[in-house]
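Figure 2 data, in text form.
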Amino acid sequence: QAPVVNCTCRYLGTDYHLGDAVCVNGPGGPRMATCDMVLNNTSWRMSETPCPSASLSPVPMSVSRISWKG
């Protein structure tokens, strides 16, 4: 019986399991990436798909100050 190995990818100090998809900042801007196995090592497989939040309009600072309760 083969041993169970929990392989993970790391991004910004967080572990992600094989198959997990996250938004990764890269030189071309934020893109979706999937944790994958390449030559017996975990690696991020970058996608051409932009992150869903990358298409959102930024919130003006005046609006964010109004909604902040501190």
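Caption note: Residues 10 and 16 are 6 Å apart (CA to CA).
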